[in-house]
Amino acid sequence: MGKSERIIKILQRRYKIKILRGKPFRVLIGCIISKRTKDTNSWPVTNRLFRIANTPQKMLTLPTQRLEKIIYSSGFYKQKAEEIKRTCKILVEEYGDNVPETREELMKLPGIGGKCADIVLSYAYGKYVIAVDTHVAKIAQRLLWTRHKQPEKIREDLHRIIQGRERLKVNLMFVQFGREICTPVPKCHSCPIEKFCPYPKKTPKKL
Predict the structure, then answer these.
(1) Is 133 a catalytic residue?
(2) What is the pLDDT of residue 207?
(3) pLDDT range class, residue 62, cuts 50, 70, 90
(4) 118 catalytic, yes or no?
(5) What is the predicted pLDDT for the residue at 2?
(6) What was the pLDDT predicted at 40?
(7) Distance CA 180, CA 172 (A)
(8) 95: CATH
(9) Total domain count, the chain
(10) Which of the following is catalytic: 80, 118, 133, 169?
(11) Residue 126 φ/ψ region, left for φ over 0, alpha for ψ in the -120 to 50 degree band, beta for the rest
């Protein structure tokens, strides 16, 4: 077993990630709402919106001011409302109320970049891709799994290292690890993979 495989196994034992599949439209809209806010904030907003409108058609007919009010607490609500409206219009007119299943098509939707596209592909459609957010990028860089800063390049490097179903767990696992231990000032003294980590700016053990 290689070093990268050992690291993944150790983190899997620690975090015991369970992959739950979501409905594509909910995952897609939830991703738009989650931009530039915390999950603890975006989840209640998404739940509130879907109690009122749970299909592209229903969301499209929702008055813009009401939509803005519903998602207000997620921040950047005007921009997000516009992206939601435009996305729903495309889904209704071009995809028969369905969410596309390819990365290329997803990234043509308003407000959907590579990370959101990969979140939909992995957590709605079960495709083996890694969504690269700030936590994933930071940890991959510290482990020297990548020397890039661009999310697309980081994704390519991670896909070479991590194969198959293991990719589905990486985003959720690295997010938890990045919040708990591999923080901006990392808690290296508490890190379960410290001995495998080449990061040069490790924090010393507490006395």
Answers:
(1) yes
(2) 45
(3) very high
(4) no
(5) 87
(6) 84
(7) 12
(8) 1.10.340.30
(9) 2
(10) 133
(11) left
In a domain, 36, yes or no: yes
Please say whether the beta carbons of 109 and 90 come within 8 A: yes
CA 157, CA 75: separation in Å to the nearest integer? Answer: 32
Choose one of 95, 123, 151: the last residue of a domain: 123
Residue 13 class from Cβ within 10 Å (0-12 exposed, 13-18 middle, 19+ buried)?
exposed
Write down which residue in 68, 94, 123 finishes a domain: 123
Whether the CB-CB separation of 119 and 132 falls below 8 Å is answered with: no
Task: Please pick, among 35, 115, 138, 169, the residue that the annotation labels catalytic.
Answer: 115
What pLDDT was estimated at residue 55? Answer: 97
Residues across the chain: 207
From CA 128, how far away is CA 9, in angstroms rounded?
Answer: 17
CA 122 – CA 117 distance, rounded (Å): 9
Give pLDDT tens digits for 1-37.
689 999 999 999 999 888 878 999 999 999 999 998 8
pLDDT tens digit sequence for 174-196: 999 999 999 999 999 999 999 99
What CATH number is attached to the domain comprising 174?
1.10.1670.10
- Do 44 and 96 belong together in one domain? yes
